[in-house]
Design brief:
The complex is a heterodimer of chains A (about 325) and B (about 375).
Chain A (H helix, E strand, L loop, with lengths): L2 H28 L15 H8 L7 E4 L4 H6 L4 H8 L23 E4 L7 H13 L6 E6 L6 H12 L4 E7 L2 E2 L2 E2 L9 H7 L3 E6 L3 H16 L5 E6 L20 H9 L2 H12 L4 H24 L16
Parallel strand pairs in A: 1-2, 1-3, 3-4, 4-8, 7-8
Antiparallel strand pairs in A: 5-6
Helix pairs in contact in A: 1-2, 1-10, 1-11, 2-8, 4-11, 5-6
Chain B lengths: L18 E5 H15 L3 E5 L15 H5 L4 E2 L5 H13 L3 E6 L2 H4 L3 H8 L2 H4 L9 E6 L14 H5 L5 E3 L4 H13 L4 E6 L6 E5 L11 E4 L4 E5 L3 H14 L4 E5 L2 E3 L3 H11 L2 E8 L4 H13 L8 E5 L8 H7 L3 H11 L6 H10 L17
Chain lengths: ~325, ~375
């Protein structure tokens, strides 16, 4: 394996591990009640974010929904600004107006995540439309969940994207639950990706917990989208490890079968990738420890900086409602 | 009339603009063409925009001039298309959406309220949504419960949305240009009956500031603050009131949000009486809001309780038999104005009010109201 590829493969592993450790740190400190906003952790779903975003360039743009920490970090969103946002600081990525569910880092190409299921779907399509109209060569990538597929706006948006052959990659993170409600109670027994195909998108269904699988499919899809082949769709099966909203594990509530939970825990995207890298001779215990240490160092520094930042001034509350 | 009614647009030092007579439709069409011409990032999209009828003629010929990429029809998907326009707007384009009926915009309330109104604020000013949504309020010929709503108060309730309601062709043009140039989402509400109105309109591109009322008639006895088509009814009522010795000052509010409260306060300080007329429903509506503001901020100016003229709290019934009872017109405004001014309605008053009863059915625009104004 060439050095560059080896670095890149290791870097994607590092990115997944970084997202995991950041969210574990958030969960550990959440009980202090200083991060006073709803928080939806993506622990267990790191390969979808890192795999799909690895196919994008710096100038490409992404949008996401309420469970967006992983997407934000994978696209290069500023870690300190995100943590400051969760602490309600003036230096937060949304200046304290958004919290966990409203992240943005335009320099990194993370154009926004919002709190209404389906809310950013048409907005992302509009960004892809703008890219096409101005011939920018930019691809837009949009993350959403299986629940979003029940929203009318999802279908309206796919229709327009297909009609205009827009340069967009739809990434459906199918974690099989909308809060506590299983997919079977919400949608008939037909594959999500088949509906996307029927809308005229090029769609695939994949194991979203296997980084190389996601990465390869996303690479090809982004390439097609950029080449003018129209909208692409990936349905990625995955599993949220923690509760829908909050820092804890909620499987004692009994809404998910213990066998399924055990099965998905065994399919950890990070440890599976670590094992693969071990087998390829790309990662050993010492290398892993180096990566862990560097991540921990970065997280500690980010929390320190975020907590030192001032809260927003009362007189700034009315700012940014309108321009000019 | 004010000495220079266009002083807010064309400074006194500037040479007077060339004027021509146009209908509302022609003025709106002119404005759209000028906006598309001066800024290549402007887009025009809506159901029927490029079709043979071109949104009552307001979009006629624009596709031919600016091409199918910038002037286009859309799928019947109001919510997604609103979101798509938001996405284009935050990416640096200036979309103008059109709904042939404002009732259709209700399908897009999620995108308008949760995204368009909040995007700038919730991301701390790092993005903006320069989006115009033209919405047409239907009236007459049996438009009925779902094609004749006048929903300005619904939109004006939402922080982050600006709401504009022009009446006269010059304002239709100037306010539309200003709305397109504005960096925030603007709900641009056109009452269908303003389209045939005829008036003098400055040629070329100009912007009329949003959030500024315009006095359309000077008077000393009562302030009639009006929204949209009720301005026309109020001007008609004012002529009758003058014959009864009441000089009404008619202020066309032009914008619902921002609301030009200072303009009304200044007028009420002079007249001491206030009547507000709106094309929407009474309850929780625009008339209630303006009366509340004036009462709270200008209580000492008021010599009598204010009153309002608005639609009853009912869906619009379809049968033409009800139209005259559903839509208040000049006669209602004149009668309310007399009551606010404490004038007893006797024989003479009743006679004058009766002359305001139009021979035209209330479901068809009164041809006398077509101007020029």
């Amino acid at each position: 394996m060439y050095l560059q590829e080896r670095r890149s493969t290791l870097d994607l592993f590092r990115q997944m591990l970084r997202i995991r450790r950041v969210e574990e740190a958030l969960a550990a400190r959440y009980a202090e009640q200083e991060m006073r906003c709803p928080m939806h952790l993506c622990i267990g779903q790191e390969a979808t974010a890192v795999g799909a975003i690895s196919a994008l360039g710096q100038d490409d743009r992404i949008f996401s929904g309420h469970r967006a920490h992983g997407h934000y970090l994978a696209k290069g969103g500023d870690l300190t600004a995100m943590i400051a946002e969760l602490y309600g600081r003036a230096s937060g990525c949304s200046k304290g107006r958004g919290g966990s569910m409203h992240l943005i880092d335009t320099e990194a190409g993370f154009m926004g995540s919002t709190a209404i299921v389906g809310g950013t779907v048409p907005v992302a399509v509009g960004a892809a439309w703008a890219s096409q109209l101005r011939d920018e060569g930019r691809v837009v990538c949009l993350f959403f969940g299986d629940g979003c597929f029940e929203q009318g706006v999802m279908h309206e948006s796919m229709n327009f994207a297909a009609l205009h052959r827009l340069p967009i990659l739809f990434v459906c993170e199918n974690n099989h639950y909308a809060v506590y409600t299983p997919l079977e109670e919400r949608q008939p027994a037909r594959p999500i990706h088949a509906i996307a195909s029927a809308h005229g998108l090029q769609a695939q269904e994949l194991d979203g917990n296997r980084l190389p699988t996601v990465r390869t499919a996303a690479d090809e899809a982004v390439h097609r989208a950029r080449a003018g082949d129209g909208p692409q769709f990936l349905e990625l099966h995955t599993w949220r490890w923690r509760e829908h909203c909050g820092p804890d594990v909620d499987d004692h509530l009994g809404y998910r079968a213990p066998e399924a939970q055990a099965d998905w825990l065994a399919r950890c995207p990070i440890e599976n990738e670590a094992a693969r890298l071990h087998a390829l001779g790309l990662l050993d215990d010492i290398g892993r420890q180096h990566i862990e240490n560097a991540i921990q160092h970065e997280i500690d520094a980010a929390f320190d900086a975020a907590l030192r930042a001032p809260l927003p001034r009362v007189e700034d509350m009315y700012g940014h409602l309108h321009g000019q | 009339m004010a000495s220079n009614p266009l002083a807010d647009i064309f400074p006194p030092s500037a040479p007077p603009p060339a004027m021509r007579k146009q209908t509302g439709i022609e003025a709106l069409n002119d404005a759209l063409g000028l906006c598309l011409q001066r800024d290549p990032t402007t887009l025009l999209i809506g159901e029927g925009v490029p079709d043979p009828k071109g949104i009552f003629g307001t979009t006629a010929g624009l596709r031919q001039r600016f091409g199918p990429q910038r002037v286009l029809d859309m799928p019947l998907a109001e919510n997604a298309l609103t979101g798509i326009c938001i996405g284009a707007a935050i990416s640096g384009l200036r979309p103008i959406m059109v709904h042939q009926r404002i009732d259709f915009a209700l399908l897009a309330m999620d995108q308008l309220i949760n995204n368009a109104a909040k995007w700038r604020y919730m991301f701390g000013g790092q993005a903006q949504v320069p989006l115009v949504v033209r919405c047409i309020v239907g009236r007459g010929w049996g438009q009925g419960p779902q094609h004749a709503q006048s929903l300005q108060s619904l939109f004006a309730h939402i922080p982050g949305l600006k709401v504009v309601m022009p009446v006269f062709p010059d304002d239709a043009k100037g306010l539309l240009c200003a709305a397109v140039a504005d960096d925030d989402p603007v709900i641009f509400i056109e009452h269908r009956w303003i389209h045939p109105l005829r008036g003098k309109v400055p040629t070329g591109y100009f912007e009329t500031p949003l959030g500024k009322a315009r006095r359309r008639r000077e008077g000393s006895d009562i302030t009639i603050a009006t929204f949209s088509y009720m301005t026309i009814e109020a001007l008609s009522a004012a002529r009758t009131l003058a014959r009864l010795g009441i000089e009404a000052e008619v202020i066309d509010m032009r914008s619902v949000s921002p609301l030009d409260v200072p303009a009304v306060l200044r007028s009420v300080a002079k007249t001491g009486h206030l009547l507000v007329a709106d094309t929407g429903h009474h309850s929780f509506g625009v008339t209630a809001e303006l009366i509340a503001r004036i009462t709270c901020q200008g209580f000492d100016h008021l010599r009598a309780a204010p009153a309002s003229v608005a639609l009853p709290d009912l869906p619009c019934p379809t049968s033409h038999a009800w139209a005259g009872h559903y839509y208040p017109a000049a006669a209602s405004i004149a009668e309310q104005a007399l009551r606010v001014c404490g004038v007893r309605i006797g024989e003479a008053q009743r006679h004058e009010l009766n002359t305001l009863q139009s021979d035209t059915p209330a479901d068809i625009p009164n041809p006398d109201y077509c101007g020029p104004f």
